[in-house]
Amino acid sequence: MKIQKLPWAGIRVEVEQTSIVIDPLFHFPAKYGEPHERFYPLDEFGSVDAVLITHHHGDHFDQAAISTYYGADIPVYMPQESIALAAAHELKSVQGVTVGQSIEIGSLTASATFSVDGFGDPQVAWVVEGGGKKLIHCGDTLWHGSWWRIEKAYGPFDAACLPVNGAVLEPPGVTPSGQPIVLNPEQAVSAAVVLKASVLVPIHYKAIHYPPLYTETPNVLERLEQSANGKVKLAVLKAKEFLAL
Question: Which candidate, 34, 121, 137, 138, has a CA 20 to 30 Å from the CA of 148?
């Protein structure tokens, strides 16, 4: 199994002749200003057999890019409740999933499991298995009490792709809480330890920092390294880089 990093929260997974992508993003949301990392046309990462989406937010479900670069007929799997919340699009094969459901995609098996969104919207984490290896991609989850259940059901993991930017948001018309809506670096390390992951691949950081609307927690990578020391291996990947499991 090979993991290829995409910008922001995206990854591409390849096993034998099968490839899938999770949360690919090309059209950076304009409300967050200019991105702090480069975004690439999705076809520069290679073809895929299916697209897995953790939730319907615009920085995780880029409908136009999926249609443009993979074709309108590409199978897209996302939480069942998210389909009604997603904006109108040209995709012709969007299929809803529920927690606990598994899908066979060529030589891969993808299973939807528990995740918690910072605004209470539907979200799943994806467990992907193939070639004797297993990873989990957790979208932009908060800390929650189901890490132990996930490990019991699916673990241990060869890799955990976890959000790390501990972002605090102040959207217009919403009373600010001052609380992060996604894992911070220390929580991501703790989640990786509970999941019994061999390696932690950080996702969901760097691209967006647009205070006060969206404020990334300071010193993300430094804090990850300090927290992970002696607990879990880190694989900090740049866009287009690969990690072989």
Answer: 121
